[in-house]
Design the sequence.
């Protein structure tokens, strides 16, 4: 089945080798990877998700995803291969395995964290069942033999004709971390990975009227405010919002992410943490009502139509880049939490879990993962300096939250090759 690109276009037109628009999920398993079992698991997984077995093509002036029957590539490395290239068999998805690590690379315009979690849930079911010769429960896992409904295929944004009119918002410029910290010449993309106990952090949230996403956003806001007390720009965090509920499209595989804007206002800064958390939760509640989320969806649809109105790839890339730059100006950082991974019985075989993607254009994105009893916070930065991480860790210490700085890595992602740069 051919898929004409809609919401995939904006992320496609802003992807480049410096900031490849892809999701990389890295999982360290308990034991060395059985290559034969992993190959079988990948093949079964991709059989279950035919809408990810596609090749980018241009037909009658439109970009489409066409069926791609070539094998999905597995590399014996942690680096992977460029997506949409000969090395990936022109797929927009690929896998890696090395020692006890497995990796999924997938184009972010094709799906989001929610969609990628579904792929991993299926993959782990097949892999662990064979690797450990066990019968795992199938509840809540998409498997070969399921009926694949139209709701999994159809783009719920571009097919909607009843979206509300978007609200015009003229936000002031936000505090820019890179400019405030003087990091203009620090261009080393880096990821700091921090682990905290799930039970301890959830208790802390309950005690202070917080939730994982709002609390991480708040602690980050507090850290930035203390670092840069004389900066005038608004401290504004975008907390990612899954749009599927508002669209009544729980099965959709597309990238369906909006955002709630959490502004750390001057009057809030003297409040106790619990009151601040209540305020942040209130902001999220107000911005995640169905009508408000659909206004954000309408904005996405409008941007897509604007891109499609341009004739050349260069013009379209210009529009997409301009929109991205506007968004970058009004945000200090972004926080994303897909929700508890719930990889079922396979979690007992997982020792480490990371979700990486390109860091936000304004410098910082925090990806929160909840797997096997702990939260992992991946600080994805366009710079190497630990100034923000250290300030955030001070917030954890002040609130008696025990953490483990697991490691520091260069933020290396597989490239996504696009036709107009070949």
Sequence:
């Amino acid at each position: 089945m051919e898929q004409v690109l809609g919401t995939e276009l904006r992320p496609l037109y802003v992807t480049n080798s410096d900031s490849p628009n892809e999701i990389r999920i890295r999982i360290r398993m308990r034991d060395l990877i059985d290559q034969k079992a992993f190959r079988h698991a990948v093949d079964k997984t991709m059989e279950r998700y035919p809408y990810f077995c596609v090749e980018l093509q241009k037909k009658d002036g439109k970009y489409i995803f066409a069926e791609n029957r070539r094998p999905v590539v597995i590399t014996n490395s942690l680096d992977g291969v460029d997506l949409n290239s000969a090395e990936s068999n022109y797929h927009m998805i690929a896998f890696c395995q090395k020692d006890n690590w497995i990796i999924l690379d997938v184009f972010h315009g094709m799906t989001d964290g929610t969609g990628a979690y579904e792929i991993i849930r299926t993959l782990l079911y097949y892999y662990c069942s064979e690797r450990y010769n066990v019968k795992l429960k199938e509840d809540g896992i998409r498997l070969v033999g399921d009926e694949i409904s139209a709701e999994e295929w159809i783009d719920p944004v571009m097919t909607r004709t009843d979206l509300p009119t978007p609200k015009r918002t003229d936000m002031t410029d936000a505090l820019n971390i890179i400019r405030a910290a003087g990091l203009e010449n620090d261009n080393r993309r880096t990821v700091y990975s921090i682990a905290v106990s799930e039970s301890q952090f959830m208790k802390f949230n309950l005690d202070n009227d917080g939730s994982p996403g709002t609390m991480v956003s708040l602690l980050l806001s507090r850290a930035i405010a203390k670092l840069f007390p004389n900066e005038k720009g608004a401290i504004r965090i975008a907390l990612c919002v899954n749009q599927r509920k508002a669209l009544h499209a729980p099965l959709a595989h597309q990238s369906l992410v909006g955002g709630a804007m959490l502004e750390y206002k001057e009057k809030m800064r003297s409040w106790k943490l619990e009151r601040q958390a209540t305020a942040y939760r209130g902001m999220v509640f107000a911005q995640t009502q169905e009508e408000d989320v659909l206004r954000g969806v309408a904005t996405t649809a409008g941007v897509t139509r604007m891109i499609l109105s341009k004739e050349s790839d260069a013009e379209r890339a210009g529009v997409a880049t301009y929109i991205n730059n506007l968004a970058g100006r009004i945000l200090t950082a972004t926080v994303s939490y897909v929700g508890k991974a719930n990889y079922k019985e396979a979690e007992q075989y997982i020792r480490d879990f990371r979700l990486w993607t390109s860091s936000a254009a304004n410098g910082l994105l925090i990806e929160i993962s909840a797997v096997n009893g702990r939260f992992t916070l991946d600080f994805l930065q366009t710079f190497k300096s630990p100034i923000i991480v250290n300030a955030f860790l001070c917030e954890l210490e002040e609130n008696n939250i025990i953490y483990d700085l697991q490691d520091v890595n260069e933020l290396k992602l597989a490239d996504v090759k696009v036709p107009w740069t070949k």
About this structure: The first helix runs from residue 9 to 14.
